[in-house]
Automatic annotation (TrEMBL), chain A:
GO terms for molecular function: phosphate transmembrane transporter activity. The chain crosses the membrane at residues 34-53, 60-76, 88-108, 141-166, 186-205, 217-236, 265-286, 334-359. It is found in: Cell membrane. The lineage of its organism: Archaea, Methanobacteriati, Methanobacteriota, Stenosarchaea group, Halobacteria. This is Phosphate transport system permease protein.
Amino acid sequence: MSKTQNSVGRAGSALQQRVDSFGRTVVEMDRTSLLFAVVQLLLILGAFASFLIQSPWAMTLLYAFLLVTGIGWARRQELTAKLLTFEMTALTLSTLGLIAFFLFLEALPALREMGLGHVLSPFGSNQWSVSQGQFSLVPMILGTLVTTAVAILIAAPFGVAGALFISEIAPDWLREITKPAVELLAGIPSIVYGFIGFTIINKYVSNLFSITPGGAMFTIGIVIGFMALPTVVSVAEDALSAVPDAMKDGSVAMGATDWQTMKSVSIPTAFSGVSAAVLLGVGRAIGETMAATVMISHSRRMLEPTVYNVFDSTETLTTLIASGYGTAPPESTYMSALFVAGVLLLVIVTGLGIVSQLIQQRMQRKLRGGQ
Amino acid sequence: MSDSYRTQLVDTKGTSYEQFAIGVTVASFVAFVLAAGTLFGWVPVAGEISGVPGATYFGVGVLGLGVATGALGAFSRWGEAQTTPSRSAGLVVGVVHASIWTVAVGLFLRYTIGIGSVSWLLAVAVGVGVGYFALALPEDLGATAPTAVFVAFLGLLFVTGLISPSWAWQPNGTNATIPGTLVIPLLTMGGVLMTGWASASAYEGFGTRGRQNGAFVLISLVVLLTLSVLVFLLAFVFERGIMVVLENLTLSAGTVTVLLATALFALLRTATVRPTVANGTDRVAAFVNLTVASLLALATLGFVLVIGTNLSISAASITVEPTAVVGAVPGLIAGGVVFGLTRESGEWRPESGRGRSIRRAFRAALLVAGGIGVLELVAGLELAVAGIGAVSVLLGGVVVAALLVAAVRPTDERTESDQVIPPVSWLGRVAVTAFLLACLRVFATGFPVGLDQAGIVASGTIDWPFITNPSQGLGIQPGVMPAMFGTIWIVIGAVTFAVPLAVGSAVFLTEYAEDSIFTRAVDIATNGLWSTPSIVFGLFGLAFIVPRFGNTPSILAAQLVLGFMLLPLVLITSREAMKSVPDEYRDASAALGVSKWQTIRSVVVPASMPGVITGVILGVGRIAGETAPLLLVLNGPAFPNSGPKVLSSFLVRIGADPPFIHVSNPALMERASALPYQLYAVITAGVGAEQSFGWGTALVLLGVVLGFFLLSIATRRYFRRKLHQ
């Protein structure tokens, strides 16, 4: 109780200090600098706001801002530089907010018309039918779940094995080759995987399992798994190599073998980091678009005959957007439903990314504290 | 005489038990590769090899490996082998064996024998039994016996034909049939992974060292095989696409020679090619460099030979013409590279009067050549007699003559005449400058320099239809030019938009801001942006950017959207780079009385430049291959017949309405294509589209993207080496 109050008080005093120091800075500035700073900030805010409301004045304000900044750069470079970099940071910060806001804004009509329950609840009709005005996302969510599950079955074990290999097992020269190679593989564009999947793998698999051609969820999951693999490897490898050498050396000095050290020191210490890597892999798998879009059947129905039949094909959230945008008329419920899928993706995947990042930071803080 | 000297303290040859164990490991690896090969159709499993079904070979092999693994355990327990097994194989091994047995026995009873749902009860009982067995017995038996029995059982299934290639299994609740041709290799792969693990463990005599060896072999195998799948993908795309990309490529041998020689020069100048003086990874790199250098030298010689013998080469629709004509653009590139590489050398300060006048004469000649070039460009006609060509040739002649003189002169006399005859490096630099000037003149005016057989021409030395043709047109070979230009413009726009923003933010966050809620919020936002799916960025572009810029998908919208995607990556890497600039630098600068912004500008930013550049290149590599947002915000024609003409369509208009100066570019506001988008178009165009064109596009796209990645890796290595010098 007192502890919370304490920390609140500390935060309050820190804030107070900052406000004070900011006030001092403002007071200590000479008139001209203050004028420059205020005008510059007002102009860029005005430009940004009029850009948001699509006012024709945006360009004029931007020019004026550039002019004022130019003058400021010539006369008060120190201050202008600080202000400019601050504005850049603020713009970067606002990007995520803008994305979330505009996606939600466009998704609102569909949510209002259909109701959140109909769009997301699995106990309704679960039907996506444009002609009947039914836009349930449940089949797509199921599709995403199935492909992601298959993908993570590939990416997680192989990815963690790869990270262990690079950080602990491989000799130095091999590590110097494998690490960039993994980075390189992470760069293969997804459409190239999609092209291979579309021309080769789809046919091969449908022949092999005697199923109707057109992208079994199983195949797509495997392809996505291989695409998420390098991400898992490099993030998990970062986590494993963040384990301080002193801890490992201590274990080895006690007579433990390298494998025992890995099992009982490295992996437990880096466990949260490795799980963050897997989470990030899950995010990658959910958000993967192009490879799945060109391989999948776009049938937008529940998997048949059972919901876990990985050899059937339906649609995922990402492929729904990629294939639907062309046929959906602007301003329609259909288009808006695509944005609902987008909001879902943003919330899930970006959330996963942030959570994974927080876990990694926490682990690194802990390791630093332990040293 | 004692014979103790014959006994080595450490036996490096290994006992026969160890040799047997390693034999089993290698055999397991071979069996794994063969089984994987059947999936690619390289190894027949359904057919017959000399009258015996392929599956039977697998059965016998797997059976043999199982028996051998069992023998390893038995020898260790009851034989002569000197092993150090633990009391138990450990919980993990027990659980793994128990689950494998449960699943295998359950499936076998349920589907092959066909007794109802009782089978799972039985299977669980068997699994628990095996698990207990593995746990309770000493390690050498507990680790090998369940593996051996299981794998041998698999082998028997294949040999007896209970699971044959024609066998098939339809799992409940699915519409698929899983054929024996898939099950046999998959089971083989699983089984031999187990025998490989057990025998690797036996090789080190079980115990802790054995377990380490087993685990390491298993992990290494799995990782290398996974990596090889990915590398195989790359090789596959290369194999399919290379002939499409190179179709009808025509080169002049002169241009190729100049480019190859430049590459060779650059390699020798910047990279180490002596494996003996390097160690570690540098040694591997030095070997690679040496190989590449030798290949380049050989190829250069080959092309010189082509010119000398005047025979044209044409192989697989590629033609090399035996002319010594060099194209102006390749010449400019090659000359520029050499010029940049020789920047630090080539100073000549003669002290005698004659030397100075010689230097002056060379400079005057260069100046005259340049002046004539400018005059020709302005006047628009060729001054053939006093043309830059003649001056360049003259200069070249003088340089060669001087080089010859310098070469034949005895070395001991050099001290005196040094003042008159310029050093070779300086002459080389003059020659390169003259060459660059000549190329620049040809490029700007279009008039050739030199003879028809040897000289510099404006164009036509490299004819590469796949790169330079539009993707649609009457009677032409389709190419990727419009898509290529689309990608180039999008990348340029994204970099111009995102990099200043990201670097500025990084400066603010590392230098000005204190750790606060604000910086933490930026942290979370950047990481969130970094992991946001690309299609969501596309939707954002559709909802936010497109309505504000002409309400139509356009290059500009694509530039901004991809810029937003590039932003977090560059921000994160720039911030890391600035954080890693040592505080001593800042303190030293502050101690000199330099202000904060001056310190940032002249100390922090330059010191962090390597990291920033690497981050930018890496980010560009990522966005260049991005397709999903382009579907929504670029959305051009599937097969465009011309590229975007961005440079030539800038418009500046002064009007009375705000903002008074209107800068516009209609070409930027149009839909267009890009390399990844082009590939998508090939796929969606359906049956009619030529798949070979798709493979070519895929290869070019891969080349561009992986080129950026290689570049970033090379930059990192270069800066790291420079830092450690």
